[in-house]
Amino acid sequence: MNYLNLTSVTAKRTITITKDDFGKCDVTRIYWLGGAGFLINARGTIVLIDPVLKTMPGHPEQCETGPVLKIKYPIDPDDIPNVDVALYTHSDDDHLGKITPHSLSQLKPQMIGPPPVFEKLARMRIDIDLLTSCRSRDIFHYPNVEVEVFPADHPWQLMDPQRLDKPFRSGDAVGFLVKTPDVYCFFPGDTRLMEEHLFLKDKGIQFVVIDVSLCTYHLNPMGACTLSNLLKDAYIMPYHYGSFVDQNFPAFCGDPKTVLDEVTNGYERALITAPGEVVEFKSGKLVR
């Protein structure tokens, strides 16, 4: 693959998330936040996954971590009224952010991630009482939500042999299985396809987010197709595409169509949403 000539689609036009989206409800609502971020409202319990929602001060066209945006974020974290837990799959800037954690910490959520996340948030002077370090198979319980930590494999630093930082090792990045009364979800995080993923086929997963970016240290289209076909009864929400202007960075480039064309019943199961667009489940059924 020639990474010098990457192309990428643009995500659908953003739909604004309002404070009403954080209220009590009798369903589970799932929102893609753009990039790699997600919001879950599980009957009033609010879970954020890899939320990066701020722009550079004075530069609204630029993400807080540097890249120029193709999209608008659906909500500013300063406008979020309440959060119960923020889950972080790993410590990369596009999943953790540089400004968003400070805004969220004012709401006093539990902030959970593997050890590099804990260290990075602590160095950002986030209240350490909010921080919880996790490892694979840990389980956390909240009203209407169970979170199980799942392994991930993401040593992307190996792309550049001149890098001084060590590549992520086992336990430095994770995914999350999230169960609510309405839907059983899998958020793999940034990961290559792993043997552990093969054992998910009998878990009854009903909703999975699929990383369609072109990076070989992510699922990439081949792994995304394999995981989608493995979880043959799950709805599919593509992500990690269409959010940033950076044609030379494979992790930001991709097209859901590349994956869905090769997935069994791919377009019937696909939920290709705009940032901020809600998808609702109730008692195991897709509502919209």
Description:
The protein has a single domain, classed as Ribonuclease Z/Hydroxyacylglutathione hydrolase-like (Metallo-beta-lactamase, Chain A), CATH 3.60.15.10. The chain is built from seven helices and 18 strands. It starts with 27 loop residues before the first strand and ends with a strand. A hairpin with a 2-residue loop joins strand 2 and strand 3. Helices cover 15% and strands 26% of the residues. The protein has helices spanning 93-96, 100-105, 115-123, 195-198, 220-230, 256-260, 266-269; strands spanning 28-32, 38-42, 45-49, 55-56, 59-63, 68-69, 85-87, 110-113, 131-133, 139-142, 145-151, 174-179, 184-187, 207-211, 235-239, 244-245, 278-282, 285-286. With 288 residues, the protein is an alpha/beta fold. The strands form four sheets. The protein has an eight-stranded mixed beta sheet with strand order 9-8-7-3-2-1-17-18, covered by helices on one side. It has a six-stranded mixed beta sheet with strand order 10-11-12-13-14-15.
Helix percentage: 10-25%
Structural class by sheet pairing and helices: alpha/beta
Q: What is the total number of structural domains?
A: 1
Distance N terminus to C terminus? Answer: 37 Å
Number of helices: 7
Biggest pleated sheet: 8 strands, mixed
CATH topology: Metallo-beta-lactamase, Chain A
Tally of strands: 18
Mean pLDDT: 94
Q: Which spans of ≥5 residues are poorly predicted at pLDDT below 50? A: 1-5
Please state roughly what percent of the residues sit in beta strands, choosing from under 5%, 5-15%, 15-25%, 25-35%, 35-45% or over 45%. 25-35%
Rg over C-alpha atoms, rounded to the nearest angstrom: 17 Å
**SSE ordering:** EEEEEEEHHEHEEEEEHEHEEHHEE
